[in-house]
Design a protein that fits this description.
This protein has 283 residues and is of the alpha/beta class. The strands form four sheets. The chain has a five-stranded mixed beta sheet with strand order 4-3-5-12-6, sandwiched between helices. Strands 10-7-11 form a three-stranded antiparallel beta sheet. Helix 1 crosses helix 2 and helix 6 packs across helix 10. Keywords: DNA-binding, Transcription, Transcription regulation. InterPro entries: LTTR, LysR_HTH_N, LysR_subst-bd, WH-like_DNA-bd_sf, WH_DNA-bd_sf. It comes from Paraburkholderia xenovorans (strain LB400).
């Protein structure tokens, strides 16, 4: 009988999402050797390699990508089956902190699905920068935080979110200006620090024409054609233009997205929302 163990499928997804076996081992709470052995055993059973091993990373092969698609579906179906059985009994309240750049695009579809599965759970969303959310999850002001890893905020790794330089279509090649006008989040933002550090390494003069804790504020400045914005890819509006090396701009390091939990979050509503966030954002 051909069997695909769900625990092994979880490992396959974790390795693909993190690009690193040691980090995947942390995600699934297993040793690195155990994860490597399970994947090798499955590859032997299938008679095909699932990953290409590189010095610092692993990437799925074509067959690995095929299996990965099914693995995600299998894990999602497992979660749905579990929720279908237990959801009538799940009640309560969950508070979650999310920064603007993630809340605008990533959170709404997840909360919609969660609310459909657990209609008796009340959800409160707190929108603040990652650096402001770190002490809140520590002191229990919020149950969960889905944010960029910053000092004082540790949690379960979800994924690396790419960063992009972006401009409004009407910006009229503002990216050619020197000093380069940029609109950025306030000091303490990892996105801001990554972008500025990239410009400094590339020796590109810049000026911060606008600072704000609000994503809407940054986008408004860009829409006015007064600056370009460094943003998480998920937060870039569809009609914006992505800028890169072809425009003389440096790459920006990705953001490490994590899910942190307070000590008071060990209860079913928080468990299920946390599982939903992780499973959806790792797809």
């Amino acid at each position: 009988m051909k069997a695909l163990d769900l625990d092994v499928m979880t490992m396959i997804v974790a390795v693909a999402d993190t690009g690193n076996i040691s980090r995947a081992a942390e995600v699934v709470h297993r040793s690195q050797s155990a994860v490597s052995m399970q994947i090798k055993t499955l590859e032997t059973a299938l008679g095909k390699p699932l990953f290409v091993r590189k010095p610092r990373s692993v990437i799925p092969t074509q067959d690995g990508e095929v299996l990965l698609t099914y693995a995600r579906r299998m894990l999602a179906l497992r979660d749905e089956a579990w929720a279908a059985v237990v959801r009538p009994d799940v009640t309560g309240r969950v508070s979650i902190g999310v920064p603007d750049d993630y809340a605008s695009s990533l959170l709404p579809p997840i909360l919609k699905k969660f609310s459909a599965s657990y209609p008796k759970v009340e959800i409160q969303v707190v929108g603040l920068p990652s650096v402001a959310l770190a002490p809140m999850v520590k002191d229990g002001s919020v149950d969960l935080v889905c944010a960029t890893r910053v000092k004082g905020l540790s949690g379960e790794f979800i994924r690396l979110e790419p960063m992009e330089w972006a401009a409004a279509p009407s910006a009229d090649e503002i990216w050619r200006e020197r000093p380069l006008p940029i609109a950025v989040f306030l000091p303490g933002s990892v996105a801001r620090e990554n972008a500025i550090r990239s410009l400094e390494r590339a020796k590109i003069p810049y000026r911060t024409s606008y600072e704000s804790p609000s994503l809407l504020g940054l986008l408004s400045m860009a829409e006015a054609g007064l600056a370009i914005v460094p943003l998480a890819r998920c937060a870039v509006p569809a009609h914006f233009t992505l800028l890169g090396r072809a425009h003389g701009l440096p790459e920006i390091p990705a953001l490490e997205m994590v899910l942190a939990r307070s000590s008071a979050s060990k209860r079913p509503p928080c468990d299920f929302l946390a599982e939903k966030i992780v499973s959806e954002l790792r797809r």
